[in-house]
């Protein structure tokens, strides 16, 4: 059925890009080939999210736990990330803001520099926010926010009794941004795996059997159509 032109306008979607390894294995290819295809799909889907008018999209590219993988695989993912950083995610001529979520100090200093430049160059843009989570973990993010609050309280700049959910949310990597309305995890897994633990409180989740390298705009359309059929109550009735 054709979608209403505004079917996705203003929504925020989180995407856990999963299944690259299985996709490669099914084809007798090295896992890194799955990540390469996954990165191409990332770019296509990011472009599509912009086209359908999402307010923001959050891609989970590398978690704080992914360092446990073999060094060769970690190196390949980071090299791919570096290539896309150099191209500034093909967003140079668009109206998108790019934001990186996660602990950057552990990343290659050249990558850190490019990340800072891309964020600075796109900071005033008013279109979709493209968030890319790299060396990101939800628990790490909340712990960091708690540490920032404690430091401010110890310095006398913050009254602990005045801390609200908003005060804490303003210290997350996503400060000022909308929570995801919908979180997708292709590949059939049904776990958040430390992704946006705070922000996902009321996110809808949709089953997705497709592996990330096979993910197409039609899969996103179907997930959003399902989201649009749901009734969100936020704890009410
Ligand atoms: C999960 O699949 C995927 C990752 C841990 C890496 C995702 C990275 C990219 C798509 C490329 C780099 C990112 C950008 C933004 C250019 P998996 O390896 O866990 O798959 P499996 O569960 O089938 O083994």
TrEMBL record:
Enzyme class, broadest EC rank: transferase
Active-site residues from the entry: 18, 66 (proton acceptor)
GO BP: polyprenol biosynthetic process
Amino acids binding substrate: 19-23, 31, 35, 63-65, 67, 69, 185, 191-193
Cofactor: Mg(2+)
Residues binding Mg(2+), per UniProt: 18, 204
Pfam families linked to this entry: Prenyltransf
InterPro entries: UPP_synth-like (IPR001441), UPP_synth-like_CS (IPR018520), UPP_synth-like_sf (IPR036424)
Keyword DNA-binding part of the UniProt annotation: no
UniProt KW DNA-binding keyword: no
Keyword tags: Magnesium, Metal-binding, Transferase
Gene Ontology molecular function: any one: magnesium ion binding
Note describing how the cofactor binds: Binds 2 magnesium ions per subunit.
EC assignment: 2.5.1.-
Family: Belongs to the UPP synthase family.
Subunit structure: Homodimer.
Function per UniProt: Catalyzes the condensation of isopentenyl diphosphate (IPP) with allylic pyrophosphates generating different type of terpenoids.
Protein name per Swiss-Prot or TrEMBL: Isoprenyl transferase
Record gene name: uppS
């Amino acid at each position: 059925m054709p979608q209403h032109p505004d079917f996705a306008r203003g929504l925020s979607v989180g995407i856990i890009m999963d299944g690259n390894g299985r996709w490669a294995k099914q084809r007798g290819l090295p896992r890194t080939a799955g990540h390469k295809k996954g990165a191409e799909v990332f770019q296509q889907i990011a472009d599509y999210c912009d086209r359908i008018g999402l307010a923001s999209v959050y891609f989970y590219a590398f978690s704080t736990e992914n360092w446990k993988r073999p060094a060769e695989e970690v190196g390949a993912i980071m090299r791919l990330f570096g290539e896309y950083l150099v191209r500034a995610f093909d967003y140079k001529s668009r109206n998108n803001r790019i934001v990186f979520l996660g602990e950057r100090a552990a990343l290659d200093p050249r990558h850190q520099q490019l990340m800072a430049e891309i964020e600075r160059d796109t900071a005033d843009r008013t279109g979709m926010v493209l968030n890319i989570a790299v060396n990101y973990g939800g628990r790490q993010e909340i712990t960091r926010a708690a540490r920032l609050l404690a430091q401010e309280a110890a310095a006398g700049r913050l009254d602990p009794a005045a801390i609200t959910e908003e005060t804490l949310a303003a210290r997350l990597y996503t400060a000022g941004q909308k929570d995801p309305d919908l979180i997708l995890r292709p590949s059939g897994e049904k776990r958040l795996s430390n992704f946006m633990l705070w922000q996902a409180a009321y996110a809808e989740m949709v089953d997705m059997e497709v592996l990330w390298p096979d993910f197409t705009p039609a899969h996103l359309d179907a997930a959003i159509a399902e989201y649009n059929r749901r009734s969100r109550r936020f704890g009410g009735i």
